[in-house]
Amino acid sequence: MQKIDFAKGDGLVPVVVQDYRSREVLMLAYMNSAAWKKTQKTGKAHYYSRSRKGLWLKGEESGHFQEVKGAFMDCDNDTLLLQVKQIGGAACHEGYRSCFFRKKGRADWKVVAKRVFRPEDVYKK
After folding, report:
1. Which of 8, 71, 99, 115, by CA, is between 20 and 30 Å from 24?
2. pLDDT per position as a tens digit, 34-66
3. pLDDT by residue (tens digit) across 91-109?
4. Full-prediction pTM beyond 0.70?
5. What is the dihedral of CA 20, 90, 124, 47, to 10 degrees?
6. Residue 55 and residue 48 in contact, taking contact as beta carbons nearer than 8 Å
7. Hey, which bits of 45-107 come out as E strands?
8. Whole-number percent of the chain with pLDDT over 70
9. Domain limits, the chain
10. What is the distance of C-alpha 34 from the center of its chain?
C-alpha cells in the first residue's frame, strides 16, 4: 500500500489545490499527517500553517471552505494535489479566487484577476 512520505519534508508535504471543475490552481499549502487525517475525516481541507506553526481549517475565519472532491499523490509520494469545491468563491486571503493573481509583465508584476471580497470586511482580527 502506498503512503504519503511526510518524512522527506521534515513532516510536511506541499499540496497543490485545484478547482475540481475548472482545474484552475487556487493555492499551494502544506500538510502534515495530522492535517491529512483531519482532511480525510471531515472532507474539508485542513493544512499546516508554517507561520502559525499549527493546523488550520481552510475557511475557519473567512467561511471560504474547501470541500475535497479528489486527492492525488505524486510519483515520489511526497506531494499532494487536492481537487476541491471552493466555497465562497475565493481561496486567497487577499480576496482573489486564486492566490496566483499576479502575472509577470516586462517590468513588474501585474494583478490579472478581480477581487471577490475585501479582506478588511472578512478578517476582523
Report:
1. 8
2. 999 999 999 999 999 999 999 999 999 999 999
3. 999 999 999 999 999 999 9
4. yes
5. 30
6. yes
7. 46-49, 54-57, 66-73, 80-86, 102-104
8. 98
9. 11-118
10. 16
